[in-house]
Amino acid sequence: RKEVEQDPGPFNVPEGATVAFNCTYSNSASQSFFWYRQDCRKEPKLLMSVYSSGNEDGRFTAQLNRASQYISLLIRDSKLSDSATYLCVAMDSNYQLIWGAGTKLIIKP
Amino acid sequence: GAVVSQHPSWVICKSGTSVKIECRSLDFQATTMFWYRQFPKQSLMLMATSNEGSKATYEQGVEKDKFLINHASLTLSTLTVTSAHPEDSSFYICSARGLRANTDTQYFGPGTRLTVL
Fold first, then answer.
1. How far apart are CA B114 and CA B84, in angstroms?
2. Which residues in chain A have Cβ-Cβ distances shorter than 8 Å to B105?
3. What is the maximum span of chain B, computed from C-alpha positions, in angstroms?
4. What pLDDT was estimated at residue A1?
5. Which pairs count as long-range contacts for B61-68, CB under 8 Å and 24+ apart, including other chains?
């Protein structure tokens, strides 16, 4: 079983719609969680950190559920520019990042 | 945010040659740098973790004699792919975590695309 699992997609979503991704992690000792965005052939860029209390940044909302060991990312009013691969990341106690394989999102006009 | 650069951004080389990739933290001191590799349509895979002034810690399955990592200063780490072969063709990305930057965040370089013919 992978340590961090994501649905690879692709999610094909019309512009303006709301889309949500989930990600599960197996290591209950994971300390911090992040969502990264990666465009094709580019490096990952930090989208947002995920806090226990939830985290909202504009159209993006991230939630953490430690009991069920999953994190989620919600994108409201999706834009064409949101098309990318979204990577779920857990950080272990040694500050090492454990990456999910990513969920591909395609926003269609 | 903190800035990390990588050089070169892409390289094409013949099989058997060695390739050096540089990773620099431009506006902070990176106590720890990470080297990742990403094959097409796959997740980033951590290759090794290097702390300034000490030997790198390699992940299982990564040959330390093939992928030489040097982290001689707080702003520079290098990855040398020795005797590169076509199967080493990949996207190599470094990231840095440091003194000034948020300790929970790794800042990524733009990556180096290596193609071995």
1. 10
2. 34, 46, 49
3. 40
4. 58
5. B67/B35
A96 vs B49, B109, B110: nearest CB: B49
- Cα(B79)–Cα(A71) distance, rounded to whole angstroms? 33
pLDDT at A92: 76
- Out of B44, B97, B113, name the one closest to residue A99 (CB): B44
d(CA A80, CA A67): 34
Q: Give whole-number Cα distances, A108 to A40, A77, A83, B13, in Å.
A: 17, 12, 9, 38
B28, B13 contact by CB (below 8 A): no
- The percent of residues in chain A predicted with pLDDT above 70, rounded, is 96
More confident residue, B43 or B13: B13
CA distance B48 to B33: 9
CA dist., res. B47 & res. B38, Å (int): 10
Q: What pLDDT digit, counting tens, does each position of B51-77 carry?
A: 888 889 999 999 999 999 998 888 999
A92 Cβ contact partners less than 8 Å away, ≥ 6 residues apart: A27, A29, A30, A31, A98
Phi-psi category of A23—alpha, beta or left, where left has phi over 0 and alpha has psi -120 to 50?
A: beta
Q: Which residues on neighbouring strands pair with residue A99, listed in sequence order?
A: A89
Share of chain B above pLDDT 90, in %: 56
Contacts of A45 in chain B (CB under 8 A): 108
Is residue A102 within 8 A of residue A87, CB to CB? The reply is: yes
The C-alpha atoms of residue A53 and residue A70 are separated, in whole angstroms, by 14
